[in-house]
Please model this.
Amino acid sequence: MVIVPVALPLAAACLYALFGWNRGTAWLGALSAGGLLAAAVLLARAGRGSALWGLLRVDALSAYMLIVIGVVALLAMLASPAYLRAELAAGHTGRRAARRYGIFTQCFIAAMAVAVLAASLGVLWVAVEATTILTAFLVGYRRTRKATEAAWKYVVICSVGIALALLGLVIVHYAAVHAKLSDGLDWVSLAGHAAELDPGVTRIAVVLLVLGFGAKAGLAPLHAWLPDAHSQAPAPVSALMSGVLLSVAFYAILRVKVISDGALGPGFGRILLVAVALASLAVAAALLIGQRDFKRMLAYSSIEHMGLIALGAAIGNGLALTAVLLHILGHGLGKSVLFIGSGQIQQAVGSSQIAAVRGLAARSPVLAGAFALGLLALVGLPPFSLFASELGIARAGFTSGLGWAVAVALALMLVVLAGVGGAAGRMLLGDPGAAGARTPLRSGVVPLVAGLVACAALGVTLGPLKPLLDAATLVATVPGAAR
Amino acid sequence: MTDSFYVQALDLACGAFLLTGVLVLWRRDLAAFVWLFGLQGFALGALIVVRGLHEGSAELTALGAGVGLLRGVLLPYLMRSAPAAGEEGRETHPRVSVAASLLVAAVLTMLAYAVSQPLVRLTPTPETQAVPIALTVLLVGFFVLVTRRRALSQVVGFLLMDNAITAAAFLTTSGVPLVVELGVSLDVLLAVLVLQVLTTRMRAAFGGTDLDELRELHD
Model:
């Protein structure tokens, strides 16, 4: 059972390799993502399980992350057929590139599933680096100067960042071998025996791991690749990268934080994460003001949200971690809706410049409505779930002595709100001029509406997700609770 | 293998490892970069083999041979496929001059020794006492990555960092678990292939591999 979420996308990738991208196989990706989601729900109910000689293992936290992957992948794969049809019609891409798109997106989803199911830090690292390699060609998909530049920066910065994490891994392994742990990189044994690790050595390792996986999670200081890569990738891939790949990398930091708390006490990880979080929020706020490109705007907003998530992890009590996990899912839903919508806008107007889009509300009311609602979700207005999770992080911060950090974050979020609001006004309102109306394809609207409805529903009630969220929070806060 | 001979062989391999890393800063033509990187791969392989022979571990010895082949032969071979003639094949205007780079390398060495004190103190064996060398090469690799302007130089900088991390893994313990080591090697190989393909595309789109030409995307 544990192998299913990895095997399904790999099987779909093989089918794409055999048959290419055509009418028959276009929905295959959505089918495999749906299967992944179903398997994730079953795994969450079962609560535990392992596969591949113990290389993969499930607990509540990994099952929850698997659900996030399944949900976002389903939205992105539902949007892919319409997106690729428009790209093929416009001559931006060819049949061979479309086949490669099918193969790489499915392998990418499989690699993310391996990352969250990995039983050890080592396997997680290998899977996260694999996502960089697999998405490199997706970022450079259009082969233009911009796309090539974005892909180069993406591979170089992320590989260097993740290399720092590898050094951190090596040093943790050193500490674990010295403490005579049976399996030096296994999450359970590391978290359970964290107190026996040498503090001086573990401190170096934790800094390297947080900076390294932080690079992949879009956190400052190694965030420079993110706006380039996320704005150049095809829209459904941007949705996957922004909506879930960032959180998968952050999942590694959540696990490292548990080890850090056990070995060094909660203070060290907290200071580190607060610094990283506030730096990311500041970078995002500074560059969102006056942003001229709407896909880059969404990318900077991802840096902002990862900063918030890092702040929640820094606070680190039960309420904060529940809010963080909910925020990961809510951000995944909202951001994928926005990126998918932005892809449709880009295809309709032929540019990703904010100035090129005017009077969208008059030209394409459905698309404009979905985009506007997505932006409202993103800036944290009710009824969307990001409101509830941001409130949770803020409350937890004020009760646990990090009120000042939350206050700074809220001030920076106001700046973000002003930037996003201004851009939205310019895009949605105004006189469309001579540009003709163009309604998007119906299959393109489905993922937008589905994502928004799910995000709003989560904001009202957690429903059946509640027990899983509680169990996952326990894994992320209490060292001994893992598995 | 006697203990004193073991320590001498280990230190020799580490010395060669450090020297090839620092010499990258001294040379300007890209072909020499690839040569030096290949030599460093052999030094790394030798380091692991020496440790494997000392511990009488056939697995570790074989792994060392494998690492030497991958990093000394296969990766340099992949990188050499890029044509390197005339201006294109030289690092003509590095952002930091060669003399200054060598001075920086000295500073980086001291930094590496300072940072790795807790690592050495935990178990002061001959192997862990060489960990600062690995960290020096890591910092030198990072320095190459940020100050050199050719695409190939950045790849070499990244690979120096990666060599250094592998060296650290085999100096601190007898390596990370085999599955992880294999996965890491595969990822590095694929990353180099991807960068090679992107270099070709860059040459087609920008007419060269000068990274300063990459400035279409900015805020």
